[in-house]
Amino acid sequence: MDHQHLASHASRFAINAPVAAVEPLGSGNVNDTYRVRTTAGDHYVLQRINTRVFRQPELVMANLAALTEHVEARHSAGTWADQSCDDRPWDVPRPIPLADGSANWLLSNGEAWRMLSFVDDATSLDTIDNPEQAQEVGRALGTFHRLIHDLPAERLADTLEGFHITPGYLAAYETERAGSQVERCEASRWCEAFVDERRDLAPVLEDAKASGRLQLRPIHGDPKVNNVMVCATSGKAVALVDLDTVKPGLIHYDIGDCLRSGCNPLGEETLDFNAVHFDLDLCRAMLGGYLSEGRAFLREADIAHLFDAIRLIPFELGLRFFSDHLAGNVYFKARHSRHNLERAQVQFRLVESIEAQEPAIRGLIAELCR
């Protein structure tokens, strides 16, 4: 979309000055995201919501409004002790209303758009280079969970039904596998065998939820490393962004996803599959950072299922990538026909590394939670 159309959409929101520039922002797989700069020098985030994924954008925005209202109420009541950074408060991107005040999102020619406040003087990480960064990423998720753990889950709509329900992804994979016209290759046959050997992993968290051992809470839904914003000066985490997946769920989805993305030093897009590994030192730092904020509201049953989450979430994402490859790349953005197959291989190699280190990871969890 050209600059004129993007600027026209941006100007429909209640920003402080005319639009001076609009440029692409980030590398998300679902929504189209832009940074808007006004003539006053302020920045905002403009997003086109992918309505093939989020079929009811009004619910996405209602969840975001509920989240920001909860945060503001905690600040007003003095029930939030900000431990994020000495020289700046924890930042929660808030929706910017339309200029006419009618809503906090825009429907234009069948497309859904929203504008959010911008986290200034901060940057995101694509991969983690050292334990200090890992600790900050973990602390960011722990801070976010601590901030919203007392927001009643029933106040949030389930905007992505079936999201992180691994048995559902396994069933969808079987359907795609049976009907796919995509030519099989050595890599796809390896992925098929990998999934076949691990079918019993799929229901572990859902069974625990069904039995009452785990409970629904508000979750971020996509707390991968590049959704954590760190202060450009101090390197301290100051925000967790990309809040369109906020919904009721199991916090284990978030913890597993955070560790999945952060403890693979080569990142999600590497082609060096044999070198993919789950870094135990980064896991120690990241999980330690998380528990520094989140340990107080974790129950013993939550802790007992942490390893299950660490192993399951990369398996689930690999399953989703592989299913999308078999479907012809219809969900995740793909640069070429094998892109999602390559992504699947990365996640499955990460699962192998986690499984090979199971005793050490379980021991680390016990040590940190003691």
Structural commentary:
The protein has helices at residues 3-10, 57-77, 131-148, 166-179, 186-196, 204-210, 251-262, 280-294, 300-304, 306-327, 339-356, 358-369, and strands at 19-24, 32-38, 43-49, 106-108, 111-117, 122-124, 217-219, 228-231, 237-240, 247-249. It has 370 residues and is an alpha+beta fold. The protein folds into 2 domains: 3-118, Phosphorylase Kinase, domain 1, CATH 3.30.200; 124-369, Aminoglycoside phosphotransferase (APH), C-terminal lobe (Aminoglycoside 3'-phosphotransferase, Chain: A, domain 2). A hairpin with a 7-residue loop joins β1 (19-24) and β2. The longest helix has 22 residues, at 306-327. 43% of the residues are buried.
Which features does this protein show?
single chain, 370 residues, alpha+beta, Phosphorylase Kinase, domain 1, Aminoglycoside 3'-phosphotransferase, Chain: A, domain 2, 2 domains, 5-stranded antiparallel beta sheet, 3-stranded antiparallel beta sheet, 13% strand, globular
